[in-house]
């Protein structure tokens, strides 16, 4: 069964903080995003760039996905950020303020040039653009299809609410429409949707509620600001035993239905048909990616394809 890469937890680590960078290998998150943008004061932009490059050069036993958030390409730091960090081989670039698809296309072209220069496979460096303004949300459907390098789209609610001239609340009503549009853009393009940070690193219940909400909406994971947030995120994204058991029953039931020559069957009084089966397969793949089950699932048989 084809798997997929878990991206539940992508932790920002400020690029100007050696004590934080050095702990990257021991964090249990799925990925890190070493930040050269808003976590780094203007006076430290140059020093942080060198520090991040040196750190990446020593972090050779990579045990998680490593992205670097560069400064936007229309700032005076963006190009220098790329030049400094790409030879140290991050997996990809988190591109802030991706308001228009052309911004991502420009980065795509630059990455190709760097790959040619460094003798790397074209497409090696991935991109995770941040949708964090009204303009970004309006254009995200095209942005999600702007290059094959995309891991997904990330939503950035701090800058988004600033662009809307509103306050961000913990209930998040003000984010609902934008989050939904980002998820649509990603699902239609076959890429992952990554939700924004929850900035109150002391409020674990608030973090749990927000993570449950965004999981329901279709996000694959969240950006994080603090390592203490990782465990809660992973708990919320882990499929529950009851969900896995039900998914296994659905897959068995549909196979019985096919043997009987029908595409619909009742399971405990509830209808099981093709969309129910698709969702069950998704639960089983997720459980597999979490190491909760180890089974062979033949999707051709499950979906009844010839
Ligand atoms: C809107 C945006 O752009 S968000 C992205 C940019 N922002 C960031 O990257 C912020 C990163 N996070 C942080 O700076 C901090 O976690 C804060 C400010 C959110 C909270 O600060 P604190 O409450 O002081 O953190 P806390 O007390 O939990 O720190 C505990 C330990 O974890 C470390 N730590 C905290 N956050 C991080 C992190 N993101 N990465 C690595 N280590 C971290 C601290 O250095 C500290 O280590 P120590 O015990 O060895 O001294
Ligand atoms: O990626 C994030 O969630 C953090 C960020 O830059 C924003 O919210 O503006
Ligand atoms: Mg931002």
UniProtKB/TrEMBL annotation:
Pfam families: HpcH_HpaI (PF03328). Keywords: Lyase, Magnesium, Metal-binding. It comes from the Bacteria. Its cofactor is Mg(2+). Residues 8-227 form the HpcH/HpaI aldolase/citrate lyase domain. Gene3D superfamilies: Phosphoenolpyruvate-binding domains (3.20.20.60). InterPro entries: Aldolase/citrate-lyase_domain, Citrate_lyase_beta/mcl1/mcl2, Pyrv/PenolPyrv_kinase-like_dom, Pyrv_kinase-like_dom_sf. One of its GO terms (molecular function) is lyase activity. This is Citrate lyase, beta subunit.
